[in-house]
Structure formats: C-alpha cells, structure tokens
Description:
The complex is a heterodimer.
Chain A: H1 15-21, H2 28-33, H3 39-43, H4 47-52, H5 58-78
Chain B: H1 5-14, H2 21-26, H3 32-35, H4 40-46, H5 51-72
Amino acid sequence: LVEHGTVESTVYQSVGDWLEAIKMGRYTEHFMESGYSSVDAVAQMTLEDLRRLGVNLAGHQKKIISSIQEMRVQMMNGTVPV
Amino acid sequence: MNTGPNIVYEWLKTLQLCQYVESFVDNGYDDLEVCKQIGDPDLDAIGVFIPHHRQRIHDAVRRLKEEEKETDS
Lengths: 82, 73
C-alpha cells in the first residue's frame, strides 16, 4: 500500500517541522509569536520580515530565505490546478 | 568557482580550521560573500568558542573585506 513512486516534494506539515529540517529550529518561537504559524504564510516572507522577527545572522537569513524560495517554487509546481 | 561550500572549505583550510566547515554550511555560511559578514554572534551560532580560532577567523574576515575594497577601486 505504500507508494514509493510519487515523491511528495518536501511539503512541510508545520513551520516547526520546516525549521527543524533546515536546522533553524531555534527560531520556531520567533515565527509563532510574529504570526507566521503556517507554511503558506512563511512562503510569502521577505528578508525584511525575517529581520523584523529577529533573525539577525547573515548566514541564517540566507539559509531561511533560500529555503522559502524553494518552497515557493514547489508550491507553484505542485498544487496549482492546471 | 567563486561560490559554494567548496570555497568555504578551502578558505577554512587555509586557516587550518576546516573542522568547522560543516557547521559553517549548516548555519548558512556557504560562500565567501556571507562569510564577510561574520562577527561574534555568528561565531557563537556556528560554535567556534576557542578564542584563538575566533581571532583567526576575525582576521581572515578582515582580509576578505580588504580584498573586496581593492577590487572595487
């Protein structure tokens, strides 16, 4: 019953899961407190938003922003009905 | 190749600090552009706590910035 064929491109269930997956779990509370509690909301974020919620390290900003960009691409390729 | 984790590895190797490469990359410091912005909070996050290692990286970051200025002018 397990289908290995359809690779669910990494769609994260929660913001926490996503941050853990990219080793940025330390920011989960920052995201929650600032109202970015869904993956959809996160996908809209900009660098400015990240700074505002307290992601100050250049490397962490880079890592999170590039993951958000990948997320957007996957969302566009995945769930949009033709 | 001027970008990517490889160049960070090479850079750390010249500093004899390549044991930190994984932690650099995990924390998003995966090219020299972003490494130029390293200061104390970044080293805390990466987990470089040995004072003379920190000093070596600070010096190297300063050199990166100087190189940048030279190529600009």
